[in-house]
Amino acid sequence: MKLENKVAIVTGAGRGLGRGIALKLATEGAKVVVADMAPADETVALIEKSGGIASAFTVNVSRQEEVQAMVKYAIDTYGTLDIMVNNAGINRDGMLHKMPVENWQLVIDVDLTGAFFGTQEAIKYMRQKGYGRVINISSGSWLGNIGQANYAAAKAGVVGLTKTAARENARKGITCNAICPGFIETDMTLKLKEVNDGAAWESMMQRIPMGYAGKAADVGNMVAFLASDEASYITSEVINVGGGMIV
Question: Which residues are catalytic?
Answer without folding.
Answer: 151
